[in-house]
Structure formats: structure tokens, C-alpha cells
């Protein structure tokens, strides 16, 4: 028999977890969100990029206009090498606007999580629980039990792990597979690190208008600079001497050592702003390893499922990691809602849930839909970072002389647009299409009038 009190436990209250809360709330599915930090609004971390595929579904959730108010549109990407010589501009963002009717936008984690948190329905706020670090997940006859470090425990039907690259949920899933001698066993360390990133936020300076984007490319190191209204974010990607699967924590001394090696490099033309200048005026900064990879198994026995960085990790050069996490939420919740609605229709019980076999099938369908595009996106992000850091002489040549040709950029962008157009949207929400360009979306939205376009 199916469950009569179907509840989803979301572990992780970052952007992906909060987006999941919105999707579940609008589907009428009971949920709680467990977040290990003391606040759901994140004050630290590099900026994120919103691209059309995620902006479209955030619009379905009624969030797009507010997100636009606290973000800046991106235009042309200006590029130069370590000596400050121009490498030509990139028009990816202009083509996005042409194809889908929206420029990508840069937004701080603080503003993104604030919008996602504060816009949740008031009657769901008590379901968002901070200071809840997960210590164990066990299965029960009808679902799961999640235990936290503070001794509290929570029972539910399924767990969605949206708790990042070093996912405790993924670790629990692996332990359950070991305990049950299952072949669905993930690697203990599934992600390979080839680069580390120093991100720095500093006040917007004269000459850096909102939306300004500069990149500096060269052997073993590349930078990205995104200017917002009040602050600018600099990201430095440094190639490691040797790739590693091990996690590494860095100190402020490590940050200063990196700046010591590369601080002379320009972030804008004419040495007007260098890495050292930006770091000296920093408001916030952090040095982290950039893991890459896709986890082999995304779910366990119809009880646990992974989304976002818990399932796959991208280098951030293309801004694809967060956006793919949002689309994970779309694909996963679509499948869960379909099974829940079928169970409720069959049982006539408003809180009914599907049988375990149906949940297993839903999780498998979600993974099948998402895995191929995620693998492609992860590979593309890694290639972009390798190109910008001149991993070999061929990549250096392509970066210097081929990618600056706009007709090639348009061709590559049009190929990507056809893949973007196939991105799923929420199929249980009534909404108007807000992003319209020259490339039609393969999955039309269900309009409020009941029709589709």
C-alpha cells in the first residue's frame, strides 16, 4: 500500500534546496528543509549566474521579477592575456538574449538566497529548520529517519540531498549500499579537483559599470570579473600541480600566497586594476578547490535521491553548476508530483503518497532525464577552464585566434541553444511564458487559461 502522510525531507537549504521547497510547496506536498548553517540567507560565497533555462522555471515559481531587481544583466565578455593584450570579445550573452529573450544575469548568493527564502509561503516557514547538521540517515518500513548532530530526528517518506559537493546525504547513501551489499555503490570520493579558485568581493570602482565582464587568460591561471551595482566579484582559477580526489581546506595565508604569485596580473586593461588591488580592497574572500565529476548512482532504494552539487560538480567558469541544479529540481519534482497525484487520485486521500516501487521508478526516470545533459555540461565547463588556462599549445592557439571569431561563436552558441531549448519546465504549474526569443522551447508551458503555447 502507499503512504497516507507523504513527506519530503530536503537536506540543504542553499539555492537548490530552497528552490526545491518552492516547487514542493506549489505542488501541495508536505516537506521540511534541514540546513546546517544558522541562517538560510548566505552572506559569503562567489556570485552566481542566472541563465535563461533556470530563469524560465524560476519565473514559473513567481520569482523572476524580484530576482531581476537584485541582479545585473551581462553583456559582452572582454578578454585579454596575462600581458594585457586583447584576445577579442565573446558574445555568448548577446546570443542568449536573441535566442531566448533574456540576458544572463549576475547575482550574489546573499540576494539569491534572500529572495528564495523570503518569498516562500508564510505557512511553510516553520518547515525550514536551521542549525540542523545531519549525522545519520536510516530507512524505516515506510520511509526514512534523518538524525541530526543536536540529537533531533525527523521521519519522512523520502530524502532529497541538496547539501553540496561534500554531501552528508551521499555519504549515508553509500553506507546503506555497503551495509546491504548493494552493487549501487558510489565512490567515496567521486569528484576530481584540477583547479582551485580564489573568489574576492570588493566595492564597485570607477569605470566598472554594472554588467561589465572581463577575463584574463594565460598558462595555468585565468580570471573572471563580474561588476554589479554595489560590488564586483573576481574569481581566479589556478591549475593545481597535480589533480587530486582529496578535499583541501585553505587559510588566509594560502590566499595571500596565491595573490603573491599572481597579484601583478591585470583584471582590466592598462593595469588599471590588478589582482592585488582587488584583493587589498576585499570585503569578502575565499579559496576553495573546484571539484568536477558526475556521481554514478543518484538514488538509493526509493528512499534517497541527490540533486545539484551532491550529484554533480562543475567548474564554475560557465556558471552551469547552479543552473543545472535548478533543472534537477524541475525534473525530480515533476516525477514525484506525477506519482503523488496518481496515488491521491486512486486513494481519494489528500495526503496519500505512492508505493515504494513508484518512487523507485520516479527517481530512475529523473536520473535518466538529467544524466546525459549533466555529463555534457560538466565536460563543457571543464573544457572552458582548460581553454582559459592554456592547458596545452592547441588550447592556447584556439583561445587566442579561433574563439575570437564571432561567426564561430554564433555557430557554437546556436548548437548550445538547441540543447537549452530541450530543458524541462515544471509540468504541473500554470504559468505564462516570460522568455521568448527566436528559438522556441521544446516543452511549452501550461498556460493559466489551460492551453499551451
List keywords for this structure.
single chain, 453 residues, alpha+beta, 6-stranded mixed beta sheet, 12 helices, 23% strand, FAD_mOase_fung
Tell me what the structure shows:
The protein is 36% helix and 23% strand. It contains twelve helices and 20 strands. The two termini are 38 Å apart. The strands form four sheets. An eight-stranded mixed beta sheet has the order 6-5-14-15-16-13-17-20, sandwiched between helices. α9 runs antiparallel to α10 (356-388). The protein is an alpha+beta fold and 453 residues long. It has helices spanning 15-27, 52-60, 64-69, 92-100, 109-118, 168-179, 252-262, 275-280, 320-347, 356-388, 393-402, 406-420; strands at residues 7-11, 30-34, 48-50, 72-73, 77-81, 86-90, 105-107, 128-129, 134-139, 144-148, 153-156, 158-161, 192-203, 213-217, 221-227, 231-244, 284-294, 299-300, 304-306, 312-313. A hairpin with a 4-residue loop joins β9 and β10. The longest helix has 33 residues, at 356-388. It holds the Pfam family FAD_binding_3. Belongs to the paxM FAD-dependent monooxygenase family. Keywords: FAD, Flavoprotein, Monooxygenase, Oxidoreductase. InterPro entries: FAD-bd (IPR002938), FAD/NAD-bd_sf (IPR036188), FAD_mOase_fung (IPR050562). This is FAD-binding domain-containing protein.
Concise summary:
36% of the residues lie in helices and 23% in strands. The protein has helices spanning 15-27, 52-60, 64-69, 92-100, 109-118, 168-179, 252-262, 275-280, 320-347, 356-388, 393-402, 406-420; strands at 7-11, 30-34, 48-50, 72-73, 77-81, 86-90, 105-107, 128-129, 134-139, 144-148, 153-156, 158-161, 192-203, 213-217, 221-227, 231-244, 284-294, 299-300, 304-306, 312-313.
Amino acid at each position: 500500500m502507499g503512504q497516507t502522510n507523504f513527506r519530503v525531507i530536503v537536506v540543504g537549504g542553499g539555492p537548490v534546496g530552497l528552490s526545491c521547497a518552492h516547487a514542493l510547496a506549489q505542488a501541495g506536498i508536505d516537506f521540511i528543509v534541514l540546513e546546517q548553517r544558522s541562517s538560510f540567507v548566505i552572506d559569503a560565497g562567489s556570485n552566481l549566474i542566472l541563465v535563461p533555462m533556470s530563469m524560465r522555471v524560476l519565473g514559473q515559481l513567481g520569482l523572476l521579477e524580484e530576482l531581476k531587481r537584485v541582479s545585473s544583466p551581462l553583456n559582452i565578455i572582454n578578454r585579454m592575456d596575462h600581458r594585457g593584450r586583447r584576445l577579442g570579445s565573446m558574445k555568448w550573452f548577446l546570443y542568449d538574449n536573441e535566442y531566448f529573450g533574456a540576458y544572463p544575469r549576475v547575482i550574489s548568493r546573499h540576494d539569491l538566497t534572500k529572495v528564495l527564502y523570503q518569498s516562500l509561503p508564510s505557512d511553510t516557514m516553520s518547515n525550514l529548520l536551521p542549525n540542523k547538521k545531519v549525522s545519520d540517515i536510516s530507512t524505516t518500513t515506510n520511509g526514512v529517519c534523518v538524525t541530526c548532530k543536536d540529537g533531533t530526528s525527523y521521519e519522512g517518506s523520502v530524502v532529497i540531498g541538496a547539501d553540496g559537493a561534500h554531501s552528508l546525504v551521499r555519504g549515508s547513501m553509500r553506507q546503506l549500499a555497503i551495509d546491504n551489499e548493494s552493487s549501487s555503490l558510489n565512490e567515496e570520493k567521486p569528484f576530481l579537483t584540477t583547479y582551485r579558485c580564489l573568489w574576492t568581493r570588493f566595492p564597485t570602482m570607477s569605470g566598472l559599470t554594472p554588467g561589465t565582464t572581463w577575463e584574463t587568460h594565460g598558462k595555468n591561471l585565468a580570471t573572471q570579473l563580474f561588476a554589479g551595482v554595489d560590488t564586483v566579484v573576481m574569481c581566479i582559477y589556478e591549475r593545481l600541480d597535480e589533480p587530486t580526489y582529496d578535499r583541501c581546506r585553505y587559510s588566509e595565508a594560502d590566499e595571500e600566497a596565491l595573490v603573491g604569485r599572481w597579484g601583478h596580473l591585470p583584471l582590466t586593461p592598462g593595469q588599471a586594476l590588478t589582482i592585488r588591488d582587488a584583493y587589498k580592497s576585499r570585503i569578502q574572500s575565499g579559496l576553495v578547490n573546484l571539484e568536477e565529476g558526475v556521481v554514478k548512482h543518484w538514488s538509493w532504494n526509493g528512499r534517497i535521491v541527490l540533486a545539484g552539487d551532491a550529484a554533480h560538480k562543475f567548474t564554475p567558469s560557465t556558471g552551469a553548476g547552479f543552473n543545472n541544479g535548478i533543472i534537477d529540481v524541475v525534473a525530480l519534482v515533476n516525477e514525484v508530483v506525477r506519482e503523488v497525484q496518481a496515488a491521491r487520485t486512486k486513494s481519494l486521500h489528500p495526503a496519500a503518497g505512492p508505493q515504494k516501487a513508484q518512487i523507485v521508478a520516479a527517481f530512475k526516470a529523473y536520473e535518466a532525464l538529467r544524466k546525459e545533459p549533466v555529463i555534457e555540461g560538466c565536460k563543457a565547463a571543464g573544457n572552458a577552464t582548460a581553454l582559459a588556462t592554456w592547458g596545452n599549445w592547441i588550447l592556447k592557439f584556439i583561445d587566442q585566434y579561433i574563439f575570437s571569431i564571432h561567426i564561430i561563436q554564433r555557430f557554437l552558441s546556436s548548437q548550445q541553444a538547441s540543447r537549452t531549448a530541450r530543458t524541462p519546465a515544471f509540468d504541473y504549474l500554470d504559468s505564462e511564458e516570460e522568455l521568448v526569443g527566436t528559438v522556441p522551447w521544446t516543452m511549452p508551458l501550461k498556460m493559466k487559461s489551460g492551453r499551451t503555447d
